[in-house]
Amino acid sequence: MNGILEVKNIGKKYQNKESEIQALKNVNFRVKKGEFVSIIGPSGCGKSTLLSIIAGLEDKTEGEIFIENEKVDGISEKIGYMLQKDCLLEWRNILDNTLFGLEVKGIKNKENIRYAEELLEKYNLSEFKNKYPSELSGGMRQRVALIRTLAVKPKILLLDEAFSALDYQTRIMVTNDIYLILKKENITSLIVTHDISEDRFQSRHQVKSA
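Predicted structure:
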């Protein structure tokens, strides 16, 4: 099997005192190394719930997640996650924001700092490393957020409506920009979106959710 990620029979139920809601049922798909896969569907259909389950941030009711043929329960060090907002720390400059994930994981060493700096240089952000988030455009902030995630060297990147906070024109430009970065770095990526325009020119496969 050459799949890096397998989602097998995933189901999720939410319960309260009055009722039970089936958010996900029998979700199955496989992602190969290096692929860019989109999950498309309207708001409220369970896309973000599925991503949270894959990331280990939310419990599933049933089913299994496999990463590189190993069953995973909970958070995996092989997964990176980009949220709707860039979540940059306004009081830290761009370089320090880029290094934040390394600090959290306790792997801020010379080799990884050098790798993060190389990413900034490679993607034309090095000249801004001493500036602060408020001095950058929305698109540049998203690129910094991406590089912060890539600096910890994930094998799979999950993007949860990662461009929805941007205006339409910027969103199209940034989506293409980030896609090219991910392809150059050969990062397997899974994006959830309700906007078909974000996916139409880059995903090799689509998983549509009703």
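Summary: Residues 30 and 42 are 22 Å apart (CA to CA).
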